[in-house]
Sequence to fold (122 residues):
Amino acid sequence: MQQRDKDEALQIKMDELKTLMMNDSWLYIRAGTKIVHEVHKARGGLIRADFEVREGRLGRVCLSGDFFYFPGKAVTRLESRLEGRPTEEAPTVLTQFYSEEGIEIPGIKVDDWMKVLDVRGR
Fold:
């Protein structure tokens, strides 16, 4: 493999990114923020949850797994409902979501979701 010199535009971009990415605010997570990744095998399939808890609130909620659900955008709407909510409200949000949205996820109940969303003791 032949070594090549970096052109000026690339070097400028590298210097910009170095300034950003070597900054402590980029490298270290903010105090009071927790990144959570949980997995639970429910009767209806595997549930995965990736989210952050910042000052007691859910953020960047991503729910996935190998389960079937109807209607098609139901899990995306559930993520939206959980976004920004205090962690202790998750059971209420889930219960309301199941009753109001008419969601069908065979073999997965509110208790199964709570196994991946409950952050107490972590």
